[in-house]
Amino acid sequence: LHYHAFAAMPLVTLAFLAHVRGEDWMSFNDGALDRLVRMTFAGLCEPERFDELAGVAQEQPPRGCAGWLQLYGLLSGRPEDFAAFETPSGDRWLGGNVFLLATALTPPRP
Predict the structure, then answer these.
(1) 2 near 61, Cβ under 8 Å?
(2) Residue 97: DSSP 8-state
(3) What φ, ψ does residue 80 adopt, rounded to 5°?
(4) In whole angstroms, what separates CA 23 from the centre of its chain?
(5) Which of 5, 18, 21, 70 lies deepest, with the highest CB count within 10 Å?
(6) Would you put residue 96 in left (φ > 0), alpha (ψ -120 to 50) or beta?
């Protein structure tokens, strides 16, 4: 689970940056990124699911290291899907507050 969450973090961030440039990384490989994030999110909510799938206890990511979920919520257009999961607005591996990043990069709507 820790590996999945750590791997999803840069992928989601890069997909968000690509989205700002008009690229659609979400549709690559029949929505592989969406599948990764959905499975990882399910595991963050119920870690025992990954334990069962692997057959052994999995390393849990540190609590509060899923700020990338907020970027994904914005990217997917479904931020409410992730509202129940308590995540910080900042993530040390992403350089701080991801909402500031999103706000700075997202053009204003007409």
Answers:
(1) yes
(2) E
(3) -65, -25
(4) 18
(5) 70
(6) left
Contact call for residues 98 and 64 (beta carbons, < 8 A): no
Instruction: Please state, in angstroms and rounded to a whole number, the distance separating the CA atoms of residues 1 and 50.
Output: 6
| H helical segments located in the chain | 2-20, 32-45, 48-54, 68-76, 98-105
User: Which pairs with CB-CB distance under 8 Å and at least 24 residues apart come from 38-42?
Assistant: 39/4, 40/1, 40/4, 40/5, 40/8, 41/69, 41/82, 41/85
pTM above 0.90, yes or no: no
The pLDDT tens digits for 60-88 are 776 666 678 878 888 888 877 776 666 66
- Long-range contact pairs involving 94-102 (C-beta distance under 8 Å, separation at least 24): 94/9, 94/13, 94/67, 94/68, 98/13, 98/67, 98/68, 98/70, 98/71, 99/70, 101/16, 101/71, 102/16, 102/70, 102/71, 102/74
